[in-house]
């Protein structure tokens, strides 16, 4: 069939829905790409920075930690978000190791330490705090930062085994004339955040990558294990 | 000779115009089916009804755009690789901004794996849309649909 180059008026009317649909499709694709790139930008740009410190409450007059004392850890997990999408904290997993000074000094200890090779020296680390927090409800605004502050208490009543180990390490430090705040700590943080405006899959058969798209996982430090 | 070449050129253009809308619809729905939470409109899970609607509307309009059923079938077939290429490009798009959401070498396979159903659905839908489009076009023009089946 040979058609003439010029189109009849009726054919131009048929062109209207064609062109309109084409434009709608292009607009939808453009918006989709913009949305997708902004999500990818969050994955590539968000950064976590965490700090930890331990303070000791109810110390004896000689500076040692008594059985009714408290070893309190403060962890601040801050996520910097230089993108246009806001984020919502989901879970913060934390671990704080204390350097087992008595063991490194050659004293026999029965607790479970983690050996860490540091050049020719082996450091022995004791896991003093570990756990996770999912109830912070903190959000990270677009082009801003959000911090989850965690306060963790360690007492004899809560965990006698770990408290005894911390008591032993701090007692050794005091006996060596060291300040308790100078006991080296190692911090490991793994936090996940949801991207606002990117809903999680609801279907139980949804592919795993769909959750990875809407959630970012950021970490700091090394996980030395238990 | 010139007249025949001109007619052939117009035929190719009609096939490409039709394949263009089919490929765009396929690329959009395939992209939407892979990343429903990061496209437009955003949804937690891909909506089959939405995919079907977009593909069906595009297939009918694509069918209307072609001159006869042979061209419509040809454009439906051409749209498949064209649409696949566009969706691969869409998934690649963050890389143009220096962001690597997915390993670039795995993108074509990732797309093929997760858009298989949409790709498989689009061909019969496009063929059905081609027939429907020809029928509608015939109704508008006042011709006989049966005359156009042969080209």
Describe the 3D structure.
The complex is a heterodimer of chains A (226) and B (151). With 226 residues, chain A is an alpha+beta fold. Chain A is built from 4 helices and 9 strands. Chain A has helices at 9-45, 101-104, 160-175, 208-214; strands at 47-57, 70-81, 87-99, 114-118, 121-133, 139-140, 144-154, 185-195, 215-220. The longest helix of chain A has 37 residues, at 9-45. By secondary structure, chain B is an all-alpha fold. Chain B has one domain. Chain B has 6 helices and no strands. Chain B has helices at residues 2-34, 48-65, 69-96, 107-114, 116-141, 145-149. Chain B starts with a helix and ends with a helix. The model of chain B has no long low-confidence stretch (mean pLDDT 88). The A-B interface holds A 1-3, 5, 8, 10-11, 13-14, 17-18, 21-22, 25-26, 28-29, 31-37, 39-41, 43-44, 197-203, 206-207, 210, 213-214 and B 3, 6-7, 10, 20-21, 24-25, 27-28, 31-32, 35-40, 42-45, 54, 57-58, 61, 64-65, 67-68, 90, 93-94, 97-101, 114, 137, 140-141, 148, 151.
Shape by Cα distribution of chain B: globular
Enumerate how many helices of chain A there are, as a single number.
Answer: 4
* Assembly annotation: heterodimer
**Main β sheet profile of chain B:** none
Number of strands of chain B: 0
- The gyration radius over C-alpha positions of chain A equals 28 Å
Helix content estimate of chain B: over 70%
- Return the CATH topology of chain A: Immunoglobulin-like
Q: Helix and strand succession of chain B?
A: HHHHHH
- What value does the average pLDDT of chain B take? 88
Q: Which architecture name of chain A does CATH use?
A: Sandwich
